[in-house]
Design brief:
Length: 150
């Protein structure tokens, strides 16, 4: 196979950000929130060091035959800075990030927020997945899918 043949590769990059939040749904009573979210419903909130072995993964049309890259890592780092670090790092998700004023700040919704933010910056169609590690045991993977509502 010639070195000029199109080859697919996935590129992953991770960042770590610290943020606090309170799991609380405006659709539920205080008692229902406490029952559902337990200690994570603490009125003063709690924090995490969110990280990922592969926080985001890029799937490009192919490895560029000239640069030898899927994407320039310097560009990817800048996109992640703008989409993840600036809006989320050292923030109270519920109070400092407008998105979470109406959406419960679960790790699932943090992954969706990151996906949507990156989609606005990255070239069309190359974002493959967002993987958010809330703890070593709790990981959410989001690939842009939407549920089918019946």
């Amino acid at each position: 196979m010639s070195p000029r043949s199109a080859r697919l590769a996935r590129l992953s990059r991770s960042v770590t950000f610290s943020a606090c939040h309170r799991l609380h749904s405006k659709s539920l009573s205080d008692e229902e929130n406490l029952q559902l979210f337990g200690k994570c419903n603490n009125p003063n909130g709690h924090g995490h060091n969110y990280k990922g072995g592969k926080l985001i993964s890029i799937l490009a049309p192919g490895i560029d035959p000239v640069s030898g890259m899927v994407m320039n890592l310097t560009d990817l780092k800048e996109y992640m800075q703008a989409a993840i670090m600036e809006p989320l790092d050292h923030k109270n998700l519920d109070k400092d990030v407008p998105y979470f004023s109406e959406v419960v700040s679960t790790t699932e919704n943090v992954a969706v927020f990151i996906w949507d933010s990156l989609q606005k910056l990255l070239p069309q169609g190359i974002l493959y997945k967002v993987e958010v590690h809330e703890t070593e045991q709790n990981v959410v993977v989001y690939k842009g899918e939407e549920a089918i509502v019946k």
